[in-house]
């Protein structure tokens, strides 16, 4: 430990740190100061790590340092539990954790600098598969990978050039060749200048050529800017669609979300994930480790010749024969217990294989379901853009159709039952009326007969006596049965009570345990419910934020669209006006008299002259028309008066004219 501290202090006192520590001052540093020293060493390796840790949260500092140490491939000593203590010690600035890290970093600073530099360009950014379905994202990711491969090749070439070491003679020859080419180019430029000077207006032509080159560059820049704006608009539309899809999914999940369904779904996911983590993945990892160990063993062995291969083949054949002999001996023994165990082993292996196959099928089905859900969301968005209506999904449509069918069948059955009940009700009602009528007739006849015989009321008295005697006999029988039943019932109850006590004793014990479990589960349920409430609140806040973003994007899109249409309309109207103005100027300036006559000014003058000439006759015609209108109105009034008053006057026609005679 002392040698380690001495090595750290010696390296920290050298360039580029210059800390001026000794063993005592370095060992007496506080945890915050020790973390700052570690951060300074990491900043020397990676300049991005230049941070004052006093202005940074401890969690962020630990996360940043752990990520860089992971990139530098530092392996803390110990297992997973020691890894958690390593993280805790890195947060608190523990000396047993910081000292080994400093010793490891200072031993290989130059190598780690190179590794940190390469990590900036070679750590691949993982893009989710659902985002790679977008063509723009896929093309960008492909370009990113191509640039990464190009960087690898260039870095290798650079390293080779550094290690190759060109001779100074070759470099001097290259410099002299370049200087000769430079002289030749200067002479050629001078010859071209002399040749151009003989041309007339060469300065003006050079100026025009320079302007042409500037305008071409400006045209390329504007075209590039236009393409960038198109790409930005396309990305904005895609982002809006993604946000709308996310908003719809979150709304659908929030509408269908119930605590029971969420708990059930979480339990299923936990079971599946626990199986994958505890059973499947460890087996796969163990198989991969065995395969890797075998491959490493094969690689470490020297190359084999033909004779070695024949020897190995002979050994394999001998081992196979031994295995067959052992199997035959085992079959000859035919032990029943071993046979049962082998049967159970076979069943267990079959079940485990089925379980693994089902887990793989479930994983594939989940991936297919996710892809199908993405396709369905895209198709629904397309149909909504085309039609504007919400379309039912497959399961929803099937449930809707099945509900309609079940309701129609239930309606038909109920309608038929109601019709049958109505018919039966009418029949029973008619039967009741007939029986009541017959009963009244019989009672009336019986009363008449009793009055004739002088014993009126006999039938009623007889019925009452029979009813009372029947009631008395029934009560006596019930009393006797009740006593016997009560005695037997008491015996049965005693036996049942004893049986139930003996039967309920273990159940009561289990019930106590279940009550305790119920209390634990209710407490866990309350915790989960609080987590669910907090998650729901977070989702609600995210949903409101997304809605605000969507609303802002829609308003911005509408404003840009209205501005675009207004600009197009103004451009078209200005183009029409400009066209008219150019035609008018062309006709007005031209020496052709026919063109001047077709000009708008000449047409307007001719029209003004015609209006002035026809103004007087037209005014007279208007006055005559108004007089005629007054005359017709007078005739109308006279006709109405003639209809209402018969003796006021008489209208006669003479010579095609109407005359009113009073």
From TrEMBL:
Query: What are the alphabetically sorted keywords of the record?
Result: Acetylation, Cell projection, Cilium, Cilium biogenesis/degradation, Coiled coil, Cytoplasm, Cytoskeleton, Differentiation, Flagellum, Phosphoprotein, Spermatogenesis
What Gene Ontology molecular function terms does this protein carry?
Answer: tubulin binding
Q: Which residues form a coiled coil?
A: 137-246, 309-382, 504-563
Q: GO biological process: any one?
A: cilium assembly
Alphabetical list of Pfam families matching this protein: IFT81_CH
Q: Where is this protein found?
A: Cytoplasm, Cytoskeleton, Cilium basal body
**In the UniProt record, does the keyword Acetylation occur?**
yes
Gene3D superfamilies in alphabetical order? Intraflagellar transport protein 81, N-terminal domain
UniProt-listed InterPro entries? IFT81, IFT81_CH, IFT81_N_sf
Q: Where is the IFT81 calponin homology domain?
A: 3-126
Family, according to the entry, reads as follows: Belongs to the IFT81 family.
* Primary role: Component of the intraflagellar transport (IFT) complex B: together with IFT74, forms a tubulin-binding module that specifically mediates transport of tubulin within the cilium. Binds tubulin via its CH (calponin-homology)-like region. Required for ciliogenesis. Required for proper regulation of SHH signaling. Plays an important role during spermatogenesis by modulating the assembly and elongation of the sperm flagella.
> What's the protein name?
Intraflagellar transport protein 81 homolog
Classification of source organism:
Eukaryota, Metazoa, Chordata, Craniata, Vertebrata
């Amino acid at each position: 430990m002392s040698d380690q501290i001495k090595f750290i202090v010696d390296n920290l006192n050298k360039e580029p740190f210059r800390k001026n520590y000794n063993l005592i001052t370095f060992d007496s540093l506080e945890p915050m100061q020790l973390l700052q020293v570690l951060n300074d060493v990491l900043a020397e390796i990676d300049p991005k790590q230049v941070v004052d840790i006093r202005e940074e949260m401890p969690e962020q500092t630990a996360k940043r340092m752990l990520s860089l140490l992971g990139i530098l491939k530092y392996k803390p000593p110990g297992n997973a539990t020691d890894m958690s203590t390593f993280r805790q010690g890195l947060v608190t600035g523990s000396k047993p954790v910081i000292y080994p890290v400093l010793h490891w970093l200072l031993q290989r600073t130059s190598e780690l600098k190179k590794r940190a530099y390469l990590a900036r360009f070679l750590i691949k950014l993982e893009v989710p598969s659902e985002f790679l379905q977008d063509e723009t994202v896929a093309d960008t990711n492909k370009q990113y990978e191509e640039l990464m491969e190009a960087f690898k090749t260039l870095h290798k070439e650079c390293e080779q050039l550094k290690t190759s070491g060109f001779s100074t003679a070759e470099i001097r020859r290259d410099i002299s060749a370049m200087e000769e080419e430079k002289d030749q180019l200067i002479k050629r430029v001078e010859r071209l200048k002399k040749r151009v000077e003989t041309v007339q207006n060469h300065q003006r032509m050079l100026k025009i050529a320079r302007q042409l080159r500037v305008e071409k560059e400006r045209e390329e820049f504007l075209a590039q800017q236009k393409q960038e704006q198109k790409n930005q608009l396309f990305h904005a539309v895609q982002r809006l669609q993604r946000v709308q899809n996310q908003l719809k999914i979150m709304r659908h999940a929030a509408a269908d979300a119930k605590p029971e369904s969420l708990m059930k779904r979480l339990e299923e996911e936990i079971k599946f994930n626990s199986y994958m983590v505890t059973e499947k993945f460890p087996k796969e990892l163990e198989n991969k480790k065995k395969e890797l160990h075998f491959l490493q063993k094969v690689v470490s062995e020297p190359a084999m010749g033909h004779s070695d291969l024949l020897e190995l083949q002979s050994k394999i054949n001998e081992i196979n024969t031994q295995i067959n002999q052992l199997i035959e001996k085992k079959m000859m023994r035919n032990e029943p217990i071993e046979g049962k165990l082998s049967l159970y082993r076979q069943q267990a292996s079959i079940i485990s294989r089925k379980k693994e196959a089902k887990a793989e099928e479930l994983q594939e089905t989940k991936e297919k379901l996710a892809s199908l859900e993405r396709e369905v969301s895209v198709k629904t968005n397309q149909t909504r853009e085309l039609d504007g209506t919400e379309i039912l999904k497959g399961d929803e449509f099937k449930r809707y159709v099945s509900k309609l069918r079940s309701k129609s069948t239930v309606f038909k059955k109920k309608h038929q039952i109601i019709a049958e009940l109505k018919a039966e009700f009418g029949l029973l009602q008619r039967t009741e009326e007939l029986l009541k009528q017959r009963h009244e007739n019989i009672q009336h006849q019986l009363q008449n007969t009793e009055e004739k015989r002088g014993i009126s009321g006999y039938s009623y008295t007889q019925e009452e006596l029979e009813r009372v005697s029947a009631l008395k006999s029934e009560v006596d029988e019930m009393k006797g049965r009740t006593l016997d039943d009560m005695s037997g019932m008491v015996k049965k109850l005693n036996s049942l009570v004893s049986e139930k006590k003996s039967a309920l004793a273990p159940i009561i014990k289990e019930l106590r345990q279940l009550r305790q479990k119920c209390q634990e589960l209710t407490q866990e349920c309350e915790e989960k419910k609080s987590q669910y409430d907090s998650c729901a609140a977070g989702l609600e806040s995210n949903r409101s934020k997304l809605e605000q973003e969507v609303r802002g994007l829609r308003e911005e899109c509408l404003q840009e669209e209205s501005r675009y249409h207004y600009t197009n309309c103004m451009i078209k109207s200005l183009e029409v006006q400009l066209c008219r103005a150019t035609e008018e100027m062309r006709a007005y300036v031209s020496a052709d008299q026919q063109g001047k006559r077709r000009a708008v000014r000449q047409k307007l003058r001719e029209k003004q002259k015609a209006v002035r000439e026809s103004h007087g006759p037209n005014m007279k015609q208007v006055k005559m028309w108004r007089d005629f209108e007054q005359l017709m109105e007078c005739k109308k009034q006279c006709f109405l008066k003639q209809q209402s008053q018969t003796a006021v006057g008489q209208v006669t026609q003479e010579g095609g004219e109407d005359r009113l005679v009073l």
